[in-house]
Write a structure and sequence with these properties.
Arc Repressor Mutant, subunit A, Helix-turn-helix domain-containing protein, 2 domains, 47% helix, globular, Beta-Lactamase, 10 helices, 256 residues, alpha+beta, six-stranded antiparallel sheet, WH-like_DNA-bd_sf, disordered N terminus
Length: 256
């Protein structure tokens, strides 16, 4: 193996570890080895290297977690995203008007990653935070994104089972997910009722370029499930207004 190939292999394995820590939070070497199929001895060496450069923080119980340095890197990356320059102010306005926790997420191949948020009152149990991800079949942001994808892309995702299960309310049956896609498209927003975290509800909408040509992100808000359920129409209207502001050029670029 040439040196550059060996380096690429090491980087790829380190990326797998970082991805799993972003998805699951604190993990031990044995758990990381199982999730990534990387030998445990290699996992130890990679964690040591990632710790040395400040990307991973060791926990007292022997597990590892992503370090706070990732927040600074995320801030820098978000600042370089022309589409989302100024979006945080709109999230703050949405938080003030609704009292709920507000999220801005962007789609990846099979999930959505949170790039910004404004925390609502008493919401410490939420699964989604900056840098963390939710799959397309779970949560308001993920389900709004899935409904905005072309049918061919959505069907490809549905065939890629098994999908992650958060609790008994998580949608896993392909027919149930297709029905949810239809409902989301009909009312123009996704409604999540405890399918990720018990006691928490959420509403999410897709952000697409003009003419609904390309999915570029999702806006969502989360709070106590009863509040979300009762006030979903008003909360959805607030999301629609925030999206309009984002796409008007004050919070997002032209969206090309």
């Amino acid at each position: 193996m040439r040196p550059e190939q060996e380096k690429a292999g090491v980087i790829g394995k380190a990326d797998l570890l970082v991805e799993q820590l972003a998805r699951h939070g604190e993990l031990g070497p044995a758990e990381l080895a199982t999730l990534t199929a990387i030998p445990r001895s290699t996992v130890y060496r990679l964690l040591e290297g990632l710790t040395d450069i400040g990307l991973v923080a060791p926990m007292p119980d022997g597990r590892s977690a992503l370090a706070l340095k990732w927040l600074h890197l995320a801030d820098a990356a978000r600042g370089g995203m022309f589409e989302w320059s100024g979006a945080h102010a709109i999230l703050e306005d949405l938080n003030k008007s609704t009292g709920q926790t507000v999220f801005l997420t962007v789609p990846r191949q099979t999930d959505t990653v949170c790039i910004d948020w404004v925390q609502g009152r008493g919401m410490d149990a939420l699964m989604l935070r900056p840098g963390q991800v939710l799959p397309f079949h779970a949560g308001a942001a993920g389900r709004a994104a899935l409904a905005a994808l072309p049918d061919a892309v959505a069907n490809t995702y549905l065939r890629s089972f098994p999908h992650k299960v958060f609790n008994a309310r998580t949608l896993t049956d392909p027919d149930a997910i297709r029905a949810d896609i239809a409902r989301t498209r009909e009312r123009a927003y996704a409604l999540s009722e405890e399918d990720v975290t018990f006691g928490i509800g959420a509403i999410g909408i897709a952000i697409q370029t003009p003419g609904h040509k390309r999915l570029i992100g999702c806006l969502s808000l989360a709070g106590p499930v009863q509040e979300i359920r009762v006030y979903q129409t008003d909360l959805a209207a607030a999301l629609f207004d925030a999206r309009r502001r984002l796409l008007s050029g004050r919070g997002a670029g032209a969206g090309t």
